[in-house]
C-alpha cells in the first residue's frame, strides 16, 4: 500500500517520467546513425529519421537506407529498411547521406553510392572512381523506395560527388546541390545543377564556393604529402527575412565542424560569404527541421566515427542561424560539449565564456 501511495504522489508531482511505448524503445544514445536526416510528417505527427542501414540495428546486411520513427524526438522505434540497393546496379558501397523530400506528390530519396573498382582517372597519387548521389521514389514516406533511371547518378557520372541535396528556388525550379569530392579536386567545392520536373539534370554544374574560402577550414595532410580541403553535407535554408543560407561541414582545428554560409545575392548563384562555425568538436553533417510545436531544430552526428545523433534548438536571426542550446533532454547529452555564453553562435570550447 505504501508503494502504491508513493507512486501516486510521485506521479502527481511530475517526478515519474512516462515510460516509452513498446513500439518506441530506443533513445538517441542507443541508435547508430551517420548523416542523419529528419522529416517531420505533419499528416501523421511522426518524425522520421533516415540514415544508412546499420547491420547492428536491423540485422540486415544489404546496402540501403533505414528509418527510425518517433512521436516526441526522445523515444524512437527500432529501424526498418526503407530502401535496398539492387545487386544489379553499378554501385557496390556507400548508402551515405540519405535525404527524403516530397516533390510532385511523391517522396524522393537522395543517397550517395560508389564503386572503387569503377575507375575514372587519377588526381596525383589518387585513383578516382565512380561516386554519386542516386534517386529513388516511393508513395509513402517510409518506403519502400524504388530506383529512378536505373540508379544512374544525378550529377555527371565522371564527377566524384556526394551528399546531394534538393533545393527549390523561389520560382519553384528544383536544383541538386552537392559536394564535389576533394578526392578528385584536391580543394573540395560546393556545386549545383538545375533539374527538370522529374529531377533529372537539366544543365551543367556550377561552382558555388570552394572549401578553402572559409577561414576556419583546415587542410588535411594526406600520406602522399598532398593537403586537401573537404566539403560535406550541404543543406539550403531560406531565413525569415528571405536570406539564403547553407549549412555545410568540413574540418577545423578540432575535427569535423558544422558551419554556415550566406548568399549575398539571395540566390543560389551567390556569391557566397562564409559566416563561421555553429558546432565544433567532431560534430557535423547537420540538417534543420521544425518540430510540431514550431521550434527550429538542428540534428548533427557526433563523433564522426561510431556516430550518434545530437540535437540543438536553433534561432533564425534573419541574416544567419544561431545555436540557442543543446537539447540534452532529448539526446541524453551523448558526447557532450560545453555551451558558451548565452547568445554566442559557436559552441567551440576555446571561445570566450565557455
TrEMBL record:
Site (Important for catalytic activity, responsible for pKa modulation of the active site Glu and correct orientation of both the proton donor and substrate): 163
InterPro entries: GH43_arabinanases (IPR050727), Glyco_hydro_43 (IPR006710), Glyco_hydro_beta-prop_sf (IPR023296)
A molecular-function term among this protein's GO annotations: hydrolase activity, hydrolyzing O-glycosyl compounds
One Pfam match: Glyco_hydro_43
Annotated keywords: Glycosidase, Hydrolase, Signal
Gene Ontology annotations of biological process type: carbohydrate metabolic process
Pathway: Glycan metabolism; L-arabinan degradation
Signal peptide (from-to): 1-18
Assigned protein family: Belongs to the glycosyl hydrolase 43 family.
Official protein name in the record: Family 43 glycosylhydrolase
Amino acid at each position: 500500500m505504501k508503494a502504491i501511495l508513493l507512486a501516486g504522489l510521485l506521479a502527481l508531482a511530475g517526478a515519474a517520467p512516462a515510460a516509452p511505448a513498446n513500439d518506441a524503445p530506443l533513445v538517441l544514445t542507443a541508435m547508430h546513425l551517420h548523416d542523419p536526416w529528419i522529416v517531420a510528417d505533419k499528416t501523421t505527427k511522426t518524425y522520421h529519421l533516415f540514415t544508412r542501414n546499420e547491420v547492428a540495428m536491423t540485422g540486415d546486411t544489404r546496402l540501403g537506407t533505414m528509418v527510425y520513427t518517433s512521436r516526441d524526438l526522445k523515444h524512437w522505434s527500432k529501424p526498418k529498411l526503407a530502401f535496398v540497393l539492387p545487386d544489379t546496379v553499378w554501385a557496390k558501397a556507400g548508402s551515405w547521406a540519405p535525404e527524403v523530400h516530397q516533390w510532385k506528390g511523391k517522396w524522393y530519396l537522395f543517397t550517395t553510392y560508389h564503386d572503387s573498382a569503377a575507375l575514372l582517372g587519377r588526381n596525383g597519387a589518387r585513383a578516382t572512381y565512380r561516386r554519386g548521389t542516386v534517386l529513388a521514389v516511393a508513395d509513402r514516406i517510409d518506403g519502400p523506395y524504388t530506383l529512378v533511371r536505373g540508379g544512374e547518378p544525378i550529377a555527371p557520372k565522371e564527377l566524384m560527388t556526394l551528399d546531394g541535396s534538393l533545393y527549390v528556388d523561389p520560382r519553384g525550379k528544383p536544383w541538386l546541390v552537392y559536394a564535389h569530392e576533394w578526392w578528385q579536386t584536391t580543394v573540395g567545392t560546393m556545386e549545383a545543377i538545375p533539374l527538370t520536373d522529374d529531377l533529372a539534370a537539366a544543365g551543367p554544374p556550377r561552382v558555388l564556393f570552394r572549401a578553402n574560402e572559409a577561414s576556419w577550414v583546415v587542410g588535411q595532410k594526406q600520406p602522399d604529402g598532398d593537403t586537401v580541403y573537404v566539403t560535406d553535407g550541404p543543406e539550403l535554408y531560406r531565413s525569415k527575412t528571405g536570406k539564403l543560407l547553407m549549412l555545410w561541414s568540413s574540418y577545423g582545428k578540432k575535427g569535423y565542424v558544422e558551419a554556415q554560409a550566406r548568399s549575398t545575392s539571395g540566390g543560389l548563384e551567390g556569391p557566397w560569404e562564409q559566416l563561421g562555425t555553429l558546432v565544433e568538436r567532431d560534430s557535423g553533417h547537420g540538417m534543420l527541421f521544425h518540430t510540431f510545436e514550431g521550434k527550429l531544430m538542428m540534428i548533427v552526428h557526433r563523433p564522426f566515427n561510431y556516430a550518434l545523433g545530437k540535437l540543438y534548438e536553433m534561432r533564425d536571426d534573419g541574416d544567419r542561424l544561431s545555436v540557442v542550446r543543446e537539447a540534452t533532454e532529448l539526446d541524453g547529452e551523448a558526447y557532450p560539449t560545453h555551451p558558451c555564453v548565452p547568445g554566442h553562435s559557436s559552441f567551440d570550447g576555446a571561445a570566450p565564456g565557455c
